[in-house]
Amino acid sequence: MDGINKGDVIIYACVIIGAGIGLALGSAFPGVLVGLGVGYLIKISMNNEEK
């Protein structure tokens, strides 16, 4: 994976998981937004732990 770093992969994974949960509950877009927020929080916490 040349152009994608680990933090971006985590964000993408959280967005996809959030969309899946949102679809199961009847509306994908709010799930995508929640997944995006959770992904950014995980990415930020990983960056803080590496320092």
Describe what is shown at a glance:
The chain has 51 residues and is an all-alpha fold.
Keywords:
mainly alpha, 84% helix, 51 residues
DSSP E strands, number: 0
- Biggest sheet character: none
Class based on secondary structure composition and strand pairing: mainly alpha
Mean pLDDT: 88
- The ordered string of helix (H) and strand (E) elements is HH
Portion of residues in beta strands equals under 5%
Low-confidence stretches: none
Helix content: over 70%
Dominant shape? elongated
The DSSP helix count reads 2
CA gyration radius, whole angstroms = 12 Å
Question: How many angstroms does the end-to-end distance come to?
Answer: 23 Å
Polypeptide structure, described:
It contains 2 helices and no strands. The protein has helices at residues 6-25, 28-50. The chain is elongated. 12% of the residues are buried. The model has no long low-confidence stretch (mean pLDDT 88).
How is the secondary structure organized here?
Blueprint: H1 6-25, H2 28-50
